[in-house]
Amino acid sequence: MALSAPIACALTGSLLLITGEAFAVAQEEPPLRFAPVPAPTSVSTIRSPDRSSGTPRSRDTSSLAVFHPATGTETRGTASLTPHALSRARWQARPPSRESIPGGSELARAFDLDLAAVPDPSVYPWSAQVRLFAENTEGQVFACSGTLIDPKIVVTAAHCLHPGPGGDWMTRVTVHPAWDGDDDAFGAATAVSMAAFTEWTDFGAFEGDMGFLVLDRPLGYLTGVHGFGFSSDDTFYQSVTFHLAGYPAAPSCYPGIPDQLYHGLGTYDLVIPTHFLAEMHWTCDTFGMSGAGAYWIDQGTRYVHGVHSFLDTASFPLVIGHTRVTPDKFDALVNQVVPGAYPTAADFLPLQARAPGSEVVAGESLLDFEYLVANASEADPGVRDFDVGIYLSANENISPLDRLIDTHSFSHDFGPHGVARVVLDLPIPADIASGSYWLGVLLEAEDAQPDNNESDGWDAFPVTIQGCRLSFESYGEGLPGSGGWTPQIVGASDLCLSSNASIRIVDGLGGAFGFLWVGTETASLPALGGTLLIDLAGTWARLPTRLHGFQGIPGGGFLDLGADFSGFQGLTLHFQGMFSDAGAPRGVSFTPGTTLMVTD
Fold it and tell me: How far apart are CA 185 and CA 256, in angstroms?
């Protein structure tokens, strides 16, 4: 390869515009339409080392501009280049801690070959890559890529967040791990602040084309995150294999776009103080991949050392440029962005309420219901006890106003960014009507931010509840027997299981003989001083019975009749008992009627 030095090519930012769609389309709608954003109005020349040697830089390369969408305000700050921060040449990487997720084999591709589609972006390490949607002040929505490098922090290109000199910040940015057209895998998060180096925002210089997002929801606890690092050795980038995974948008080249994650790998051809570049023998551009983290793998751990910034389309082969993580950029992350993302005290929040099955019958238990609790802070609170309420809601906004169906407690020793998983069999009350609901968790915790102690949105679990399959309802009046006792029929089932129902007769005369009438229709016919409640004009049966209990004891007689109603959905039956009783006015006692209904 022969790359000229200095490079002064036609450099094009690879931000994408979603045209003709409302912002909500980015969540879960039909395929999105993309168009490349125009080239930035002010493009700096990227100089090779020999041209920039000995020339002092006029701009402060450690200054961050931070935008707060909620208030529309911008603040400025400069990283303090401390020896402590620089000694941490690798920011910590965290695979998903809730369970072991297969790492996936790296795809055999090089930068001089076309990108390859990632089969399943929901498994780590691919799950740390995000699709990014950004809305500007005119309501236009753009698309980029990014990488989770911390549970609440995404690194991306600055031009995905700010157009450069004279422009305004994006007003709203959301990120979507494992995006494949919807948010099913992990849900989404919204940026509560966005940061970019002033080299880009004030001067439009590509050496500052790197930015960070602080999220309202710590997605990285679910997806896992990559590390973040730098090397001062230029030859490192020409000898170590680097990977790039993002969301391109050229429909003629990349099947499945804009909803397909792609991956490539290789080494770089030219390394300069602010960028590393590679010739690409690809036939297509990389619009949409702006902001994707360029990372290398060291003993299974991935470290982002740059972000995809631009594509030189002036000649073939194409040239991609990745904005390099320099010591000042690394220090800005460690000393400014990360401390600003978390409270100083422990902050506990529940995430990912889930169960293997999404359908349950009222009165039964939802087996292996689980949720995560994360300490989204750098604080170490030690062992803490938690009271937890599980709520059933008609929507995904969980609150104390919803129905409380379970309470329990647990204890855990949370370290900084510690995550615990709680698993239980969750009883569903028998009186819940059939329908679609959400189950969510509410923590009773004294922490830094009590307003995030509910598992709202994607973190609530959608469940379909089938009302109790068996129900019993009394009707009509009985006829008292000895001692003034009126025998009763009590219907019961084991947690509403139609295979385990029973008809129980109680409060009769011990040892009394009689009949249990069963029919499909009800009636009200005078008989023997009482009322016959079974319609003999319909289908009926009369079962001879004898009550148990001590012989001749009023109110002490009983009888249990087990029944299996499996496969009889929609069945309705009516029961009434009649028993010989010498102490009754007419020598007989009646139970009131009882109706059994087996629902679908």
Answer: 17
